[in-house]
Amino acid sequence: MGFRPKSKMKMHHYIKPANFIYPDETTVSGSTKLFSVLLRRCISREVVAVCKYIPRNNSPPIFVALVPQEEELDDSSIQISPPGFHVIFLPFSEDIRSLDLPDEMPKASHEQIDKAKEIIKKLSFNFQSESFENPVIQKHYRVLEALALEHEEEEEITDLTVPDAAQINKRAGKAIDEFMKAVFPDGFDPEAKITKRKASASTAAAGGAKKAKTDEPVDVESIAKNGTLGKLTIPVLKEYLKSVGKKAAGKKQDLIDAINEHLGL
């Protein structure tokens, strides 16, 4: 579609994970030479290529930006970053909306920030992945062990990934309480359950009207003559077959065929 300066690419253009492409001579002969020339020119001119991307047949077109990446080697001439293009999926105009934000956004006070830092400091620790067993794999092993040894119940496992509430409260309970008092208004109970709002009379009436509409009888024979039985649900088709003394079993197409056969269509 054309080329744009690399500086025109903004962070809000990044709407989904990008892809990375490189040439494949087995698919397109001569693609390596064309790819190399295009990559060098884009890097030297600091531009990105705007393209129309159609991933597969019958897929809608998507505009993408090909952001060049130069090959990077370390001191031992070992490749760190390969040469190629990052495929950035660009948003359409309606994907970007302007928000009416208030003139002054609420900001945390210095006291609130200090309380939050204190919680983080008390709950920080040196993480090592070897200290945590995968509970899913451990559960799998326990089941296999129970089957092999013919045990009626498998051995219980300890899920080390679940937060230790008692230890958290011991280390940072006081700091958490002070943070909540500094952030939440007086009388606020974060542990209070939120009660669901009851449906209004108009909503209930609308729901009742909708339900009454679904209870109306369906003229299956007229629909069958129009050739639109596929729009009906399986329960409706089965109910009609049972009412005429026919077997109501099988997939949806089997039910439609049985009704058509009964009506001679």
UniProtKB/TrEMBL annotation:
Domain of life: Eukaryota
Keywords annotated in UniProt: ATP-binding, DNA damage, DNA recombination, DNA repair, DNA-binding, Helicase, Hydrolase, Nucleotide-binding, Nucleus
Cellular component per GO, a single term: Ku70:Ku80 complex
Keyword Nucleotide-binding attributed: yes
Limits of the SAP domain: 229-263
Main location, first listed in the record: nucleus
Any one GO MF annotation of this record: DNA helicase activity
InterPro entries cross-referenced by the UniProt entry: DNA_bd_Ku70/Ku80, Ku70, KU70_core_dom, Ku_C, SAP_dom, SAP_dom_sf, SPOC-like_C_dom_sf
GO biological process entries: DNA recombination; double-strand break repair via nonhomologous end joining; telomere maintenance
Subcellular location: Nucleus
PANTHER family found in the cross-reference section: KU AUTOANTIGEN DNA HELICASE, X-RAY REPAIR CROSS-COMPLEMENTING PROTEIN 6
Family assignment from sequence similarity: Belongs to the ku70 family.
Protein name as annotated: SAP domain-containing protein
Taxonomic path: Eukaryota, Metazoa, Porifera, Demospongiae, Heteroscleromorpha
